[in-house]
Design goal:
The complex is a heterodimer of chains A (about 250) and B (about 325). Chain A has about 250 residues and is of the alpha/beta class. Chain A is built from 6 helices and 13 strands. Chain A has 2 domains: about 200 residues, Rossmann fold (3-Layer(aba) Sandwich); about 30 residues, no CATH class. At the A-B interface, helix 3, helix 4, strand 7, strand 8 and strand 9 of A face helix 3, helix 4, strand 7, strand 9 and strand 10 of B. Strand 12 of chain A pairs antiparallel with strand 10 of chain B.
C-alpha cells in the first residue's frame, strides 16, 4: 500500500503578522514556520496505518520554497519514509487550482492507494487543493474526517460537520482530509530526527505555469476596532451594568 | 451580463439561512449586471419555490432524486455542472459551510478554473469581481481581482445580508435531469447523525458563550452551559458554547467547540469570552464578532483589546450573577 501525505509550510499560528507598507505581502523576516497543523493529523494517521498494516510506503509531498524542506524533514522525523518538494518561490501566492496542477504530475508519477492531507491550510483557509486533486484523478473525496478505519480496500470514515456527524464508506483509491480530533500527532523522537537526516527529499520543478485568474491587489491589517469600555463598578453592580449595556446600547440581548 | 447559479442547502426541510445570504448577494449582482439568478435544489426539492423567489431567484432548478437525499460530493458536483451549463451561468455562488467548502472546489475542478473561498467582501465591476478575504485566520485581509470564467465563489456565513423577502416576486421552476452512473456513487453515506435539537454549532450561533483557561475544568463549562440554558429560554437567539484551544487541549471540552486559527472562525452578533486571555490564535477566530464581551481577572489580558465591554472580575462570580439577573429580566426559570 502507498500513502501520499500532502503538507504545507505555514507561519506559526502563535505569531502576530505585519503587512509590508506597500501591501504586497506580510513581513516574512524572522517568521517561524511550521507544518500546517491539520496536515500533522494526516501524517500521524499515515503512520498509524503503516504501524498496523506493515507493508506501507509513506511519502510526504509539499509545494513550497527551499525552506519547506525543513517541514518535510520534520514529517520524515515523525516517521514518513521519504519526501518530495515541488519547489516554487513565493508559493503562498499560488491559488488552489495552480497548486493542485503542480502536484498532479508528481502524484501521477508516484501512484497511490490513499492520499491524506489536512482539512485546510491555516494561512489561506481555502480547503481547495484536495477536491481539485480528487477530480483530476477521478477518485472519491471525504473531508473533515475524525475517524478512519481501513477495511480491506474500503475506508470507513466519520466526518465532522457543523450540522453533525456523517459516516461514509469510501473505496480506495481516495483522498481524505483530516480534522482535529482524528488523532494526537506524535513528536519526532531523537532517533526519528537522526534517521530523517538520511531519508531522501527529491526536489522537482513544476512544469505548470501559474494561472493569473486571481490577481492580488493588496493586503491590509484587519479593520481597526474602536476601543471598548471597561465597566468600572463594584460587584454585582458591574454585572447589572453589563447586561443593561448589552440590551440598551449594543441591543444584542 | 452575468447569469448566476446559487446552490441551495437544506436541513430538516428548511432552507439554511446561509444559502439565502448567497441568494440575496447573487440578486444584487444580477441586478447590477442585467443577469438572471438560478437557484439549484438537489435531493429534496419540494416546497421551497416561494421562499427562493422572495429572496431573489428567477428560476428554480430541481434535481429530484432519491439517491441524492444525502449529500455526496461527486454526484452533487455533476448536478451543479449540469445546471451551470443549462443556465449559461458565468458565476457559481454558495455559502462556505462544510458542504459548500467540500462542493465548490470539486465544481471548479470540473471547469478547470481557480476559485475563491470564504469571502467577506464581493463586488462586481466591469465584468470582474473584486473580492476580500481574511488570510491567516483574519490576522490579514487580502483584496484580489477574480477574472476566472466561470467565477466560482464561496461566501463566509453570517457576513453577507440575506435581505428582506420580497413577497411580490415569483420564480419559474424546472426539473433537471443529470446523467448519473454507479461510478458516481463510489463513496456512500452510511449514517447521518444530526446534532440534537438545541445543540448549536459555533459557526451557526447568534450568541457564543466561550470559556478558556480561567474556566479551570469541565465543571466550569457546566456553569457556562447553565448560562446558555437561560439565554435559550430567554429567546434572544441561537446560543452555542465556545472554547479556547487551551480548554480543548486540556480535555475539558470537545474540539468541535474550539474557536480560533486552528479551530473555527466565527462571526456571531455577541461573543462572550469568560476566562480567555486572548492569544493571537484565538483572537484570529472571533474578532469579526459584532459585539465582544470579555470577563477576566487579569486586567492585562489581551482579550480586552478587542472587547467592546470588559469586566475585570472573577467569572465564577460573574456567571451566576448574570444567570440570576437574566432570569429576572426575561422571567424564565
Amino acid at each position: 500500500m502507498k500513502i501520499l501525505v500532502l503538507l504545507k509550510k505555514v507561519p506559526d499560528t502563535g505569531l502576530t503578522l505585519q503587512v509590508k507598507p506597500d501591501g504586497s505581502d506580510i513581513v516574512r523576516d524572522n517568521i517561524t514556520y511550521v507544518i500546517n497543523p491539520y496536515d500533522e493529523f494526516a501524517i500521524e494517521e499515515a503512520l498509524k496505518i503503516k504501524e498496523k498494516l506493515g507493508d506501507v510506503e509513506t511519502v510526504a509531498i509539499s509545494v513550497g520554497d527551499e525552506g519547506a524542506k525543513e517541514q518535510i524533514r520534520t514529517a520524515l522525523a515523525m516517521g514518513l519514509d521519504r519526501g518530495i518538494l515541488v519547489k516554487v518561490d513565493g508559493f503562498w501566492d499560488l491559488d488552489g487550482y495552480t497548486t493542485a496542477m503542480m502536484l498532479k504530475d508528481v502524484i501521477e508519477k508516484e501512484g497511490f492507494d490513499l492520499i491524506l492531507t489536512g482539512k485546510m491550510a491555516v494561512d489561506d483557509y481555502n480547503s481547495q487543493v484536495p477536491a481539485y486533486i480528487a477530480e483530476f484523478f477521478n477518485i472519491p473525496q471525504a473531508t473533515y474526517i475524525v475517524k478512519l478505519e481501513l477495511d480491506g480496500n474500503t475506508a470507513k470514515v466519520e466526518r465532522e460537520l457543523e450540522t453533525g456527524m456523517e459516516e461514509w464508506e469510501v473505496p480506495l483509491p481516495a483522498i481524505l482530509t483530516c480534522e482535529k480530533g482524528l488523532n494526537e500527532p506524535r513528536y519526532p523522537s531523537l532517533r526519528g530526527i537522526m534517521q530523517a537526516k538520511k531519508k531522501p527529499i527529491d526536489v522537482v520543478e513544476p512544469s505548470f505555469t501559474p494561472s493569473e485568474a486571481i490577481k492580488k491587489v493588496k493586503l491590509a491589517p484587519p479593520p481597526e476596532k474602536a476601543p471598548g469600555k471597561i465597566i468600572d463598578k463594584e460587584f454585582p453592580e458591574n454585572v447589572k451594568e453589563l447586561i443593561r449595556l448589552l440590551r440598551e446600547e449594543a441591543k444584542v440581548l | 451580463m452575468a447569469n448566476i447559479l446559487v446552490f441551495i442547502e437544506t436541513k430538516k426541510d428548511e432552507i439554511r439561512e446561509f444559502s439565502l445570504e448567497a441568494l440575496n448577494t447573487a440578486r444584487k449582482i444580477a441586478d447590477a449586471s442585467g443577469g438572471k439568478v438560478y437557484a439549484l435544489l438537489v435531493g429534496k426539492t419540494d416546497g421551497f419555490d416561494d421562499t427562493l423567489a422572495h429572496y431573489g431567484a428567477d428560476v428554480v432548478y430541481k434535481v429530484t432524486d432519491e439517491r441524492l437525499s444525502n449529500y455526496l460530493t461527486v454526484p452533487y458536483a455533476k448536478a451543479v455542472k449540469a445546471a451551470m451549463d443549462k443556465a449559461g451561468a458565468s458565476v457559481f455562488l454558495l455559502s462556505a459551510t462544510s458542504l459548500g467548502k467540500d462542493l465548490a472546489p470539486r465544481v471548479a475542478a470540473k471547469f478547470g478554473v481557480p476559485m475563491v473561498s470564504d469571502l467577506t467582501g464581493l463586488e462586481y465591476k466591469d465584468g470582474k469581481f473584486e473580492i476580500v478575504k481574511p488570510l491567516y485566520a483574519g490576522k490579514v485581509y487580502g483584496t484580489f481581482e477574480l477574472s476566472a470564467e466561470p467565477a466560482i465563489i464561496s461566501l463566509r456565513p453570517k457576513i453577507f445580508e440575506k435581505g428582506e423577502p420580497d413577497t411580490s416576486r415569483s420564480a419559474s421552476s424546472e426539473e433537471l435531469t443529470v446523467d448519473l452512473t454507479d461510478d458516481d456513487f463510489r463513496a456512500k453515506v452510511v449514517e447521518v447523525k444530526e446534532k440534537e435539537t438545541g445543540e448549536i454549532d459555533v459557526t451557526e450561533a447568534d450568541i457564543i458563550v466561550s470559556g478558556g483557561r480561567g474556566v479551570k475544568g469541565p465543571e466550569g463549562f457546566e456553569l457556562l452551559r447553565q448560562l446558555i440554558d437561560v439565554l435559550n429560554k430567554a429567546g434572544v437567539g441561537k446560543v452555542a458554547l465556545g472554547a479556547s484551544r487551551v480548554a480543548v487541549d486540556s480535555g475539558w471540552i470537545d474540539h468541535s467547540h474550539q474557536v480560533g486559527q486552528t479551530g473555527k472562525v466565527v462571526a456571531p452578533k455577541l461573543y462572550m469570552a469568560f476566562g480567555i486571555s486572548g492569544a493571537i490564535q484565538h483572537l484570529a477566530g472571533m474578532r469579526t464578532s459584532k459585539v465582544i464581551v470579555a470577563v477576566n481577572k487579569d486586567p492585562e489580558a489581551p482579550i480586552f483589546k478587542v472587547a467592546d465591554y470588559g469586566l475585570v472580575e472573577d467569572l465564577f462570580k460573574v456567571v451566576p450573577e448574570m444567570i440570576k439577573e437574566l432570569k429576572e429580566i426575561y422571567k424564565v426559570e
